[in-house]
Every structure is written in structure tokens, then in C-alpha cells.
Design goal:
Order of helices and strands: HEEEHHEHEEHEHE
Low-confidence stretches: 77-82, 151-165
Helix content: 25-40%
Mean pLDDT: 82
Number of helices: 6
Strand content: 15-25%
Structural class: alpha/beta
Number of strands: 8
């Protein structure tokens, strides 16, 4: 579900004239070659995935020198009711301009054993609560901010990064 959100953000940025790509964190060595970063993670038990947290920590110095936006994916139900316990810390660490929470999707057939255990433990129903219009607005806000920063939408690269789920 997080990968699909990242792909939608990248596609919306592309439609606005920004060269964007959605890539798994594991494929990104360093972020120094990008002009801006959108970093997202699934949220499990109130926290970003370890891989995403470590990526932000490892690249914090570089991320703090560029425009960064964060998004969390995973709460099922109205977005904003619950986010990530570590999102504020990661936003401060990376100098993120904004953090948005998007409701997620639970598809038991695509969950790993530990994920199925957590879903069963908290009695989360299988459903898809992602708000695609909100994702589009987020991308539009990013595009507007980048245009305002640069005076034009002529960035070399904008990375849409996602955590693998």
C-alpha cells in the first residue's frame, strides 16, 4: 500500500512537470544526487518501519540541506487519528517541511506472518481507506513549493522514496 502511495505521488509530480521516481529505500544509496526527497513509510504498531527510520537517520545531514516531505501510511480509519510516534523526531532530524498521514490498506493475503499477527492482535479489519484525492493534494502542494523555491519546475531529480512493505 505504501509503494502504491509513493507511485501515485511520483506520478502526480510528473504530471506537474517534475522529474520524479518512486524507488524502494533499499535501492537508494545516497540522496545527494537529488534536489528534493519525499520519504514515506508504512506505520506498524505506531512506528515507521525500521528500514525507513535508519534511512532517514543515515542520510539526515544531506536531507537537512534539501526540501524534504514525509508521509506515513498505515492507519486504517480516518487519516490523522493516529500517525507515527517517531514522525516528529524524523521530521526534525531531516528538516522536513511537512509530514502527512494517509490512511492505509490491510490486505491479509499480502501480509507477512508477523504483520498478520499484529493485524489479528489489534482486530484490524481488511479494508482500503486510502484517500487518493488527499494524495493528489499532497503532491500538488509539493510541486507548488518546489516551483516557489526554484521559480520554475525545472529540477534535475525529485525522489519519491518509499519503504518496502
Amino acid at each position: 500500500a505504501t509503494a502504491e502511495l509513493a507511485a501515485a505521488i511520483a506520478a502526480a509530480l510528473e504530471r506537474r512537470g517534475i522529474d520524479a521516481e518512486a524507488r524502494p529505500i533499499g535501492e537508494i544509496g545516497e540522496v545527494g544526487g537529488y534536489d528534493a526527497v519525499v520519504l514515506g513509510s508504512a506505520v506498524y504498531v505506531g512506528r515507521w518501519l525500521r528500514e525507513a527510520r535508519r534511512f532517514a537517520e543515515r542520510n539526515a545531514a544531506t536531507l537537512a540541506t534539501m526540501p524534504v516531505w514525509l508521509f506515513s501510511s498505515g492507519p486504517v480509519g480516518p487519516a490523522g487519528e493516529s500517525g507515527s510516534a517517531d514522525a516528529d523526531t524524523l521530521a526534525e532530524l531531516t528538516g522536513a517541511r511537512e509530514h502527512r498521514v494517509f490512511a492505509g490498506r490491510i490486505d491479509r493475503a499480502r501480509l507477512g506472518l508477523s504483520e498478520r499477527f499484529v493485524v489479528r492482535l489489534v482486530r484490524a479489519p481488511a479494508r482500503d481507506d486510502r484517500d487518493w484525492a488527499a494524495v493528489e493534494r499532497f503532491a500538488a502542494d509539493i510541486a507548488y513549493a518546489l516551483a516557489d523555491d526554484d521559480g520554475a519546475l525545472a529540477l534535475r531529480h525529485t525522489a519519491g522514496l518509499r519503504a518496502s512493505t
